Amino acid sequence: MIHITIPGxxxxxxxxxxxxxxxxxxxxxxxxxxxxxxxxxxxxILAMEGQPxxxxxLRVELRAYFPIPKSWTKAKKIAAANGDIxxxxxxxxxxxxxxxxxxxxxxxxDDKQICxxxxxxxYSNDPRLEIQIWEIQPNERxxxxxxxxxxxxxxxxx
Length: 158
Fold this sequence. Notes:
The chain is of the alpha+beta class. The chain has a single domain, classed as CATH 3.30.1330.70. It is built from 4 helices and 6 strands, in the order βββαβααββα. The strands form 2 sheets. It has a 4-stranded mixed β-sheet. A two-stranded antiparallel sheet has the order 2-3. A hairpin with a 2-residue loop joins β2 and β3.
């Protein structure tokens, strides 16, 4: 398993921008997104410790911990820190997942290898993005998250 932690508030991938030169439209990524993807890649290089990029089927989990708003009441801040309040604002989960593009050629050969992905958005007094990557073995089934959650609930009810 590879574990990558990027300190600071998580960012989602920005929308592509467009410009026109000589009558031709060109799409590009905004500077904030490019800078964040560069930071993600740098932390991934450190986490890989010289290992080559993974080449097989992959499972990933992203945990995006956002700063608790300073304007919230003390009680609400405590509830958020305890995980009782979920992060329901932007960035969207799918845009956070797109940050994995920064790991192409670093942690894995290409993000098309990802067969199973999960993202969790929450609040924390220590904002960060945590990425965990596992190789899926050839005879291993892709995990059905809902099935696993139902199984945990059934066991708890016993």
